[in-house]
Amino acid sequence: MRSSSEVVDYLDNLRKKQQVSISELARRVSMSKSTVSLYFKKEREFPVNRLDDFAMALHTTPEDVLGVIDNSNVKNPSNVIYPLSDSLQRVKIPIIGEIACGDPITAEENIEGYTEETFEKPIPSGTLFALRCKGHSMEPTIHDGSLVTIREQPTVEDGEIAAVLVDGDNEATLKRVKHQGDLIMLMPDNKEYDPIILDKNNPGRIVGKAVHVSWNIK
């Protein structure tokens, strides 16, 4: 497996082969040009928790960048952990399609596939599942089509992004949560969208907290 310095060299070589400028790469990973430039000059430590973003931006996989074997085609139960290094762990997580009323979130009939995500140790505790973001209400934080890893939990703190079931538990939405008295306000990051207010006439329930985002690079 490649060292941190070798990972940076590998990414830089990929960037040059694909004729991707520092500015363009920075745009794809939602960072400033100066920050990305410092990584490639090795004047700042490369953020291992952003490895997925850089790999996807350069149309490859974290396994390829790290120089480890790709286990993506091996069938395993959900939340299987693959040790990668002293600071990274790769976790296999179920992708949830439709969430049926009353069913456990990770019931087999709700799972449409699996994703493998890289976390900086320690990985989030508890049951993890992934949802695919639809729409633009959470941009620029979460882009349309991104996979968002959720840790199953019934409450979150104000300002945290949560997966919330609305419309009689038939639809899941990703929003920032703000408690206002007896109300819960689901706040979009995109100011062009309106908040959703949960109350006794429009109930909903929090099913988990967003802990990881894999950007969808088109």
Major sheet summary line: 7 strands, antiparallel
User: Spans of 5+ residues with little confidence (pLDDT < 50)?
Assistant: 69-77
Order of helices and strands: HHHHHEEEEEEEEEE
CATH domain fold name of the largest domain: Umud Fragment, subunit A
Task: State Rg.
Answer: 19 Å
In CATH, the homologous superfamily of the largest domain goes by the name Umud Fragment, subunit A
CATH architecture of the largest domain: Ribbon
Structural class: alpha+beta
Gross morphology is globular
Proportion of residues in helical segments: 10-25%
CATH top-level class of the largest domain: Mainly Beta
Number of strands: 10
The proportion of residues in beta strands is 25-35%
In words, what does this structure look like?
This protein is of the alpha+beta class and 218 residues long. It folds into 2 domains: 4-66, Orthogonal Bundle (434 Repressor (Amino-terminal Domain)); 80-214, Umud Fragment, subunit A (Ribbon). 19% of the residues lie in helices and 31% in strands. The protein is built from 5 helices and 10 strands. Strands 4-5-10-6-7-8-9 form a 7-stranded antiparallel sheet. α2 packs across α3 (33-40). It is globular and about 55 Å long. The chain starts with a helix and ends with a strand.
